[in-house]
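User: Sequence in, structure out. Go.
Assistant: Echoing your sequence, followed by the C-alpha cells.
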Amino acid sequence: MLKYIARRLLVTIPVLIGVTVVISLIVYLAPGNPARIALGMNAQPEAVRELERQMGLNQPPWLRYLEWLWGVLHFDLGESVRTGRPVSAMIARRFPPTMELALASMMLTLIIALPLGVISAVRQYSWIDTSSMVFAIFWLSMPSFWLALILLLLFSVEWSIFPISGRSTPVLGATWLMSLILPAVATGTRRAGLLTRMTRSSMLEILNEDYIRTARGKGIGETAVIYTHAMKNAMIPIITLIGLQIPFIFSGSVIIETVFSWPGMGRLLVNSVLQRDYPIVQGLVLVYAVIVIFSNLLVDIAYSYFDPRIEYE
C-alpha cells in the first residue's frame, strides 16, 4: 500500500504541471489588462505601461509561467494585483469556510442517500422505494443555484428562520450552524439524489447474490445480513461515485458561496475573475486541483478497506 501511495504521489507531479500549464495559458488568453483595471480606465498609458513592467506583464508568456512555477515550488503564489497582498495568505484565510461547506454538504449527502438507498433496495417496489426514487429524480432535476435562491426566499426572507447571507462566528457555535445549513442543503441535496439511486442499484445487485441467500438460510439476522454482508460489498461503486462527486461539490460551491455571500475560496474566485486578478485565479485553481487529486487518492485507499480482495501491487 505504501508503495502504491508513493507511486500515486509521483504520478500527481506531471498532472499538477499540466494543470499549471493550462491555468497559465487560460490566464494569458483571457481578455482584459490587469494593469489598466488596477489603475482605472482613465489612467495614463505611461502609468499603465509602468505597472505592466512592475507586474511582469511585458515579459513573454513562457517566462512568466516559469517564474510563477518557481514561486509555487517555494510555496509563493505571488501577490494580488488589486491589493498587493500575498495570494497564499488570502487563500489560507478562505480555505476553512470552503472546507466547512464541502464537508457539511458531503455529510448531508451521505446521511440522506445511504439509508434511503438501502431501505429502497430492501423494500423494493414498496411505497418507500417509489418515494425515494421520486425524491432522487426531483433533486437531480433541481439546479443548485435555483434551489439556493428558493431556500433564501423561503427560509430567510419570508420566514426569517436562517441568516440571509454570510458566515457567523465562532465556529461550531449555534449561529455558525444556522448560517451553514442553507448553503449545505443547496449543495448536498442534488448529490444525495444521484447517490441514492446508485446505492439502491448496488444493493439490489448484492442482495441477489448466492452468499446472501446462504447467510439468510443459516439463520443470520436480517440486520446483520444487510449491514454486515451486503452493504460492505456494495460500497465499491458507491465510493467511486463519492469520489467523482468531490470535484462537483467544490465547483458547485463557487456558485453557492456567491449566492449566500459565504466567505470561501469560491466567492474569492468569482470576484478575482471579475476583477482580472489573475494571480489569485491561478492560485485557487491550483489548490482545487490538489484537493481533487488527493481526494481521489483517499477513495482508492478506501477500496482496499471495504474489499480486501483489492490489492495494490
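User: And one key feature?
Assistant: The mean pLDDT is 83.
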